[in-house]
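sry for the spam today, last one i promise. struct tokens for design, 510 residues
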């Protein structure tokens, strides 16, 4: 393993060195730092050109300039953007944060939803649900990202902000939404007509009750999770995690998940006091620490139930505790919604269409976090929809291939439950092709979110690249290209290591 890792790192460094030279030469051919001066009408035009040439060493051979730049780069000096006279490290620091926020949110949602829906579609092959998901996937995959972004601006931002002026959903609309959700659940769960009718009716009923609750409590003006929705959602999380982790027949795991969910609901009010006292020192490190504590507590509860295979209970408890704790955190963030929406900088239109933060907003950690969330909604959905379509198709195809293998038939012949066959033998092996796709796709999003960032005006790496390329500034452009190339090499190494983790038959030494 160590020899493989060292070999791949050395090969990657060689590729990075060669690609940096090629990129420097191509960028140098593309840009013209004297473009603005050539068309200038200033009386000292020639003097300004000479000063610019001397400042940027344009009389030196391009190879010499490359090695000078490379020498500075390997020592940690990324140079200075001559157009703004700002260090490139300072420009990158803010751009990388904005891009990582966007890419992380979009990628996590796309992977979770895409793989989940794709696997369900594979298990319901040639059913109405499968045909529906296939149609939606191809439709989303073919949509131009800029067109999706413009539609989201019009309907999800402007339309929703207008809706908040009179947030009322008509009863026929609620019934229609409930029927649609019931139909989707009945198709996804499948089974005989009686089971489909029961599942669809239950899903439609729950959806209608939730919509009615939202309407009667004026949830649109003061959105929150609250104890009621927290209890219902936590119960659903506990049952869902147990079903996927061990199956509902594992009583200790089920009791662990239900106990964790009940504990989360019981701690709702005490956590409000804790958040109140923690507000002055609140930051994302504290949030991460609280998440780790929640996972540990969930695992401890699972360990206390013991049993012959107590590790399954520990895993179920930890996996249940994290999303329940996340709901409590989201609820606390949403509690500042009235204050946020009524701020002068917001003007009663809380869903923004541009930027990554609201200028002159102010406020504590909760207000700033909510502001970041609202700015992330539209670009995240825009990127997620297209990535979701790709992950759905990959997951479906991979799962279909795995479920047709001999070892799946052998597992069923041994009398294993269908859940065990699907989750332990089918799901894990279906992830192997995804190990190549996901790391590369993440890097593609980081380097390719240029259009989305440009439309939504997010000051990320894509915007930085376009702005400095248009300004004929080679230092920030090279920093962007080299970071993307470096991440692409890292993604390939990570994909190989993930292969070895998912499938012990694959040896990285081979």
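last one done:
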């Amino acid at each position: 393993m160590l020899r493989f890792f060292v070999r791949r790192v050395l090969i990657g460094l060689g590729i990075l060195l060669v690609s940096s030279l090629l990129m420097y030469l191509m960028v140098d051919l593309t840009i013209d730092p004297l473009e603005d001066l050539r068309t200038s009408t200033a009386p000292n035009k020639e003097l300004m050109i000479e000063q610019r040439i001397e400042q940027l060493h344009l009389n030196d051979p391009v190879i010499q300039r490359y090695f000078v730049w490379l020498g500075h780069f390997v020592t940690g000096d990324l140079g200075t953007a001559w157009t703004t006279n700002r260090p490139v490290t300072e420009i990158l620091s803010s751009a990388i944060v904005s891009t990582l926020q966007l890419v992380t949110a979009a990628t996590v949602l796309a992977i979770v939803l895409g793989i989940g829906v794709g696997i369900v579609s594979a298990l319901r092959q040639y059913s109405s649900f499968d045909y529906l998901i296939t149609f939606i996937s191809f439709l989303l995959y073919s949509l131009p990202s800029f067109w999706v972004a413009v539609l989201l601006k019009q309907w999800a931002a402007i339309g929703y902000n207008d809706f908040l002026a009179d947030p009322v959903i008509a009863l026929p609309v609620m019934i229609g939404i409930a029927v649609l959700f019931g139909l989707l659940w009945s198709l996804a769960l499948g089974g005989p007509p009686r089971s489909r009718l029961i599942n669809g009716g239950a899903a439609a009923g729950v959806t209608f009750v939730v919509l009615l609750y939202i309407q009667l409590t004026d949830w649109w003006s003061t959105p929150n999770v609250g104890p009621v929705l927290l209890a219902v959602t936590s119960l659903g999380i506990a049952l869902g995690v147990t079903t996927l982790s061990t199956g509902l027949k594992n009583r200790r795991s089920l009791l662990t998940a239900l106990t964790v969910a009940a504990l989360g609901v019981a701690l709702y009010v005490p956590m409000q006091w804790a958040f109140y006292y923690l507000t002055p020192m609140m930051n994302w490190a504290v949030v991460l620490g609280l998440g780790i504590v929640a996972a540990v507590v969930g695992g401890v509860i699972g360990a206390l139930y013991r049993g012959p295979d107590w590790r399954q209970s520990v895993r179920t408890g930890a996996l249940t505790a994290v999303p329940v704790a996340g709901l409590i955190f989201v609820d606390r963030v949403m509690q500042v919604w009235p204050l946020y929406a009524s701020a002068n900088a917001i003007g009663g239109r809380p869903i923004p269409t541009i930027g990554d933060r609201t200028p002159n907003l102010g406020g504590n950690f909760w207000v700033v976090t909510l502001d970041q969330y609202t700015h992330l909604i539209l670009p995240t959905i825009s990127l997620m929809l297209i990535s979701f379509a790709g992950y759905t198709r990959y997951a479906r195809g991979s799962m279909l291939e795995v479920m047709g293998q001999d070892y799946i038939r052998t597992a069923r012949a041994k009398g294993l439950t269908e859940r065990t066959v699907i989750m332990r033998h089918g799901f894990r092996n279906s992830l192997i092709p995804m190990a190549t796709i996901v790391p590369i796709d993440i890097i593609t999003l980081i380097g390719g979110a240029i259009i989305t960032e440009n439309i939504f005006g997010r000051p990320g790496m894509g915007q930085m690249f376009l702005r400095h390329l248009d300004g004929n500034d080679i230092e920030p452009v090279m920093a962007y290209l080299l970071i993307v190339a470096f991440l692409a090499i890292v993604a390939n190494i990570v994909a190989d290591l993930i292969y070895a983790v998912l499938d012990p038959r694959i040896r990285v030494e081979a």
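The mean pLDDT is 88. ok im logging off now
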